[in-house]
Amino acid sequence: MSESLQTETRAYYEQAASLASKYPAGYYALFVGALCLGAYPSYREALDQGYEKAQTASFLVKQITCMEEVQRIVTPVVTLS
Amino acid sequence: MSFTLVNGLPIVSIRLGVSEAFKSHCDRQMEPYPEDLQVRALIDTGASITVIDDQLVSRLCLRSKGFCKVRGFDNSPDGSASHKEYPNYDVSLSIWKTTTETTLHIPDLQVVAVPLDCTDYDMLLGMDVLRRCTLHFHFSDNFFDIQAAAA
After folding, report:
1. Is A71's CB within 8 Å of B71's CB?
2. Under an 8 A CB cutoff, do A72 and B48 touch?
3. Which residues are CB-neighbours of B88 under 8 A, at least 6 positions away?
4. Which pTM value belongs to this model?
5. Residues 6 or more apart in contact with residue A81 via CB below 8 angstroms
6. Is B25 touching A (CB cutoff 8 A)?
7. N or C: which end of chain A has fewer CB within 10 A?
8. Scanning every residue of chain B, which has its alpha carbon at the shortest distance from the alpha carbon of A59?
């Protein structure tokens, strides 16, 4: 994981359980730094709020799920070393 | 919309850009944003999420919005529980053939970026996008049709 968004990512996982109980599954949580600014029913709404509130700062948008989904990609991809 | 198979592969033309959310933000701030790119995408029913080559990240000046846990495409065993985390980005995406022929537009889509290092295509069109389409393959006749599914 790169350096950027480490604070936001750590904060999300620390608050994941409470977010899951507070918001419906599928909502998108918005983090700027360690602060959760809210959760929104669509990816677009979370992005709009992120760009408005964070301006030039980085922000994290993460879908709230009871158990985080691991994406699966069968196609072999050559990874440059 | 019909496409000829490329080296036997189902590859479509994509117009890829920054997300509409970012474009709206830039418009409000009266700031410029990168122009959309014309890229090629492999239709990949084995991918649960859409993947872009990481070189497109710098070309579109994308900024990460988080990380996705992904397994499988680093040649790890099929049943492996291991996964890696890859950065995700917000983009807009259109499947198109000519400037007047577009079949699907997704204004705000979360995609993962990895080094694809492939000359035939620049991204993998995963099931998150394909679920919104109707596909008919005619492999024996070397073409396929793709349309946006009825809403």
Report:
1. yes
2. yes
3. B64, B65, B66, B67, B68, B110, B111, B112, B113
4. 0.89
5. none
6. yes
7. C
8. B65
